[in-house]
Write a structure and sequence with these properties.
CATH class of the largest domain in chain B: Alpha Beta
CATH architecture of the largest domain in chain A: 2-Layer Sandwich
Order of helices and strands of chain B: EHEHEEEHEHEHEEEEHEHHEE
Largest sheet of chain B: 5 strands, parallel
Largest sheet of chain A: 5 strands, antiparallel
Number of strands of chain A: 12
Helix content of chain B: 40-55%
Oligomer: heterodimer
Helix content of chain A: 40-55%
Radius of gyration of chain A: 47 Å
Structural class of chain A: alpha+beta
Distance between the termini of chain A: 41 Å
Structural class of chain B: alpha/beta
Number of domains of chain A: 4
Number of helices of chain B: 8
CATH superfamily of the largest domain in chain B: Response regulator
CATH architecture of the largest domain in chain B: 3-Layer(aba) Sandwich
Number of helices of chain A: 12
CATH class of the largest domain in chain A: Alpha Beta
């Protein structure tokens, strides 16, 4: 779940896309509107000036005084009646002809906005000629035009809102791909090469390079820590071998068997560290029957462990490690007070399942995943005061992992726990 | 038995020696490959316990070398390098068994006893019959050229039967050597194991001898 304070980059890009689209649509509409408006006006002005030019030529030829000028103008007005243009002729401030008054200087202007009356004035010799027209069509369609623009803006905005999510997702694709490859990095063996090749986007490649450097440094320090743990544990093997053998030999001659038991326990723990510190995947492998492993390991326990083998459970791997896995799983069940433990081997398609089921305190939902991390001890372990460092389950997960499989606790159960290890079946 | 213990750690050499002597074996010691070569050449050795990391070389290579020279003395690798790669390398080099350090003394004695029984018996390294080929040295089985998954315990059983060269090996003997104990549960496991080997290699590979035990099929 995302908390309220967290913001989504996708939503941010989407809202920017919508904003840009709306602003773009409005701006385009305004520019187009203004342009077509001025074109319509300019065309009308040209028409008015043409008519005035014609009137001027007539006046120049025929008008000798005011009354003849009035006649020429009236005639001209009759001729152009069908165009809806009205003419007026002034001499000085005196109106010789026309049915409207104006004092406007030479030029064109809109004198009435509501019905859109356009007026052009020219001066010729001692006359001022005026033409007026009503832009009926433009006036009528003016509001239609505004509504059309608003409609277009609305449609564009809606389209932008609808597609912005997709656009944002698409723009974020390289980032999503990078995130997925970072997600896919195996925390046990971080490898900077896993985050893939350059994306070709400058910003992302900078992020990728930074991630690569961090992962490389992490992987180096992890390898160093593992080498140290491995060498330290390996270094102790020889003296430990001597200690254990010495203790066993002395116990045979009547000395306390306690030291031998302690030495054995110590060597078991050392083995666990050695296995966990070795991060390599299993290179070679021998055919191992999980059923045979189960039989052998169950015999080690003084308590009877129920066995249910429905299959030989043939896998490729390391029998000693798989034995260690099962021993740890049974140990784990018994440590927390399970009274009965049942080991089953079953084949399901290409997978062999080894499961250890008990009637102990069980594992809570919350702990199910984190218990497999090294040095994590569960509630049950703390309550029971059981000893251990929380390496048993980590070892199980690790051995399963290097065999190409996994280990997990099954989902909610009425009582007890069931640990299932899934390994790829032989071939 | 005269057992040669090759290990460069003096205390460990002495401890393995004591564990063997208390069983009635005689222990000979070598701290290096050169010394082991000398002892093997000069004295009669019935069995070798060999460490892998030695001052003057790698144990598995020496094992390979003496096998090439024709020495078929049973050999057990006892090493702290116990990853599966090293174990397989050991078997490939011609070792008969592998035990990881730190080991349990009882386990070491049991393995040495089992190896001792094959003393003198010629090593049968490869048996081929029909489409099946068993390479005991490398512990690899193939059928029609495909790898046949024979597990460690199945190899022990086949190994013991191969040693008898077609003669009968009693159930008790097999249980004692392969499981280390003769009881009801191991007896049941033996039946299961024989059935599995027959399924993997073919029924004719293991013959049941009524009232006696098992033998490698003729």
């Amino acid at each position: 779940m995302r908390s309220a304070s967290e913001r989504s980059l996708r939503a941010r890009i989407a809202s920017v896309v919508v904003l840009v689209a709306v602003v773009g649509a409005v701006a385009t509409a305004l520019v187009f509107g203004a342009l077509s408006w001025s074109m319509a006006i300019a065309q009308e002005d040209r028409r008015l000036r043409d008519l005035l030019g014609q009137l001027d030529r007539e006046l120049a030829i025929e008008a000798r005084d005011d009354s003849s000028a009035r006649q020429v103008a009236a005639e001209e007005q009759r001729e152009i009646e069908h165009t809806g243009v009205r003419l007026a002729v002034y001499r000085g401030d005196l109106r010789i002809s026309g049915d409207f008054a104006t004092t406007a200087p030479v030029g064109c202007r809109t004198v009435e906005w509501n019905t859109l009356v356009r007026e052009c004035v020219t001066s010729a010799r001692d006359h001022r000629l005026v033409a007026r027209s009503t832009l009926v069509a433009l006036a009528r369609y003016r509001w239609t035009f505004v509504w059309a623009l608003l409609g277009a803006v609305a449609i564009v905005s809606a389209l932008a809102a609808w597609s912005s999510g997709r656009v944002a997702s698409r723009s974020l694709e390289p980032l999503t791909a990078l995130r997925n490859s970072v997600d896919a990095i195996d925390v046990d063996r971080p490898d900077e090469r896993a985050i893939g090749s350059a994306t070709g986007y400058v910003e992302l490649d900078a992020l990728r390079a930074a991630l690569e450097r961090t992962i490389r440094r992490l992987s180096e320090s992890l390898a160093q820590a593992r080498r140290f743990a491995f060498n330290a544990a390996h270094e102790m093997r020889t003296p430990l071998t001597a200690l254990r053998a010495e203790a066993e030999l002395q116990a045979e001659q009547g000395a306390s068997p306690q030291i031998a038991a302690l030495a054995e326990e110590l060597s078991r723990r050392m083995d666990r560290v050695l296995v966990l510190a070795d991060s390599r995947l299993l290179g070679a492998g021998e055919p191992v029957s999980l059923e045979a492993v189960a039989e052998e390991i169950c015999r080690e326990f003084s308590r009877t462990i129920e066995r249910d083998a429905r299959d030989e459970g043939l896998v490729r791997g390391d029998g000693a490690l798989l034995g260690m896995l099962l021993r740890n799983a049974i140990d784990n069940s018994l440590k927390f007070g399970a009274r009965s433990v049942r080991v089953a081997v079953e084949r399901r398609g290409d997978v062999v399942e080894l499961s250890v089921e008990d009637d102990g305190p069980g594992v809570s939902e919350r702990e199910r995943q984190q218990l497999f991390e090294p040095f994590v001890r569960g509630e049950a372990a703390k309550r029971a005061g059981a000893e251990g460092q929380g390496l048993g389950l980590a070892l199980i997960a690790h051995v399963a992992m290097i065999h190409g499989g996994d280990a997990a606790f099954d989902g909610a159960r009425a009582r007890g726990a069931r640990l299932t290890v899934r390994l790829p079946a032989w071939r | 038995m005269r057992v040669l213990v090759v290990d460069d750690h003096p205390e460990l050499r002495a401890l393995v020696g004591r564990a063997l002597q208390s069983e009635g074996h005689a222990a000979l010691f070598a701290a290096s490959i050169a010394e082991a070569d000398r002892v093997l050449g000069e004295e009669g050795v019935d069995l070798i316990v060999l460490d892998l990391a030695l001052g003057d070389g790698w144990g598995a290579q020496w094992c390979k070398a003496i096998r090439t020279r024709g020495a078929d003395v049973p050999l057990l690798i006892l090493s702290a390098h116990s990853a599966i790669e090293q174990r397989l390398e050991g078997f490939d080099a011609g070792a008969d068994d592998f035990l990881a350090k730190p080991f349990a003394v009882a386990e070491l004695r049991h393995r040495i006893r089992a190896l001792g029984r094959r003393r003198g018996a010629a090593r049968s390294t490869v048996i081929e019959r029909g489409a099946v080929r068993l390479d005991f040295a490398a512990r690899r089985a193939t059928r029609h050229g495909d790898e046949c998954p024979i597990t460690a315990r199945e190899w022990s059983l086949l190994d013991r039967l191969a040693l008898a060269k077609g003669n009968v090996v009693s159930r008790g003997e097999l249980l004692e050597e392969v499981w280390g104990e003769d009881n009801e549960s191991s007896a049941r496991s033996l039946d299961v194991l024989v059935a599995r080997i027959r399924k993997k290699l073919g029924a004719e590979w293991i013959r049941t001898v009524r009232g006696g035990g098992y033998a490698l099929g003729e």
